[in-house]
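User: Structure please.
Assistant: Input sequence and predicted structure:
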Amino acid sequence: MTVTIIFQALLWIWFLGCTTTYRIGKYTLVEGMGIKSAEFGMLCLYSAGLILYYLVQPAGKWVLSAILILWFVVEFFCHWYFTIFGASERKLKGYNECFRNTVRLFPMSETRLIPDLYHIVQHTLILLNIILCLAG
């Protein structure tokens, strides 16, 4: 249970970066989109799922699981789908422009969409939370 709480909190804090910018010195981890964004809506949905998870068992477990799975599917089709299957020139240009100043494990590509460090960690945390939620 403690591991679950830690990873849920890590995901919540990590994803908060999508609404408030996280910087490490001169490097941008993620550029926050503010409270009028779809990212903030997802943060609210995840927060509601967490509240239900702790207050209304066993239904809360299934609600949170559904939210996490939906979130993972959305993230897959926003990032990894284009990494695996390729992206149009317009999509690739827009993605690289949007995330041009972020910290990267792998350099941007002119031919393939490459997620930055923030999104790699975020997607890993979502997947871990799905596993922990379903296992708990």
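Residues 2-84+118-135 form one domain.
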